[in-house]
Specification:
Layout lengths: L5 E2 L2 H24 L5 H5 L2 H19 L5 H10 L10 E2 L1 H22 L5 H19 L3 H11 L10
Helix pairs in contact: 1-3, 1-4, 1-6, 3-5, 5-6, 5-7
């Protein structure tokens, strides 16, 4: 049985902080954009484009692993070398699962927005912002808590590699 992947817990907090700022911008843009009549008009709104980019980043981090996402790379190369070693490491599986939850929420917002649901981008962005803000500001990861709840309930199983 292999040891679970371990990460510096400050990395996901950094990622969440950057993501929270970008999501807040997306929510603001979504409120300013209003509604559009055609699919083409909805697809070029700045809030849609920003949320689509963030959804792609969530998918990247969830698929490749939280330590291989773009903000994790920035943290590892530019920030972590300037910090003291972490007091402890944490399992990478819960934050990786949390990135998947972020991907699900933002992709749902994108699909609903393209389908013409008013303010779908704003609602999805706001939910994702709340989760990212809680993690970035307070170290409380809602997606991680959901992961642990699902593991305890037996819905998902913790693997040896994760």
């Amino acid at each position: 049985m292999s040891r679970p992947a371990q990460i510096d817990p400050r990395g996901p907090r950094f990622t969440a902080s950057v993501t929270a700022v970008l999501l807040l911008v997306g929510v603001g843009l979504g409120l300013a954009d209003g509604t559009a009549d055609t699919l083409a008009a909805r697809a070029v709104q700045p809030a849609f484009i920003l949320l689509a980019v963030l959804a792609a980043l969530f998918v990247w981090s969830a698929a490749a692993g939280v330590s291989r996402g773009p903000w994790a790379i920035v943290f590892r190369r530019l920030i972590r070398p300037r910090l003291a070693p972490p007091a402890e490491l944490e399992d990478a599986a819960p934050p990786t699962f949390a990135q998947g939850v972020g991907a699900f929420v933002t992709i749902a917002g994108i699909i609903l927005h393209l389908a013409g649901v008013p303010y779908a981008i704003v609602v999805a962005g706001a939910f994702a912002f709340i989760a990212a803000f809680l993690n970035g500001a307070f170290g409380y990861c809602l997606g991680c808590q959901l992961y642990l709840l699902l593991v305890r309930a037996g819905v998902i199983r913790r693997t040896a590699a994760a």
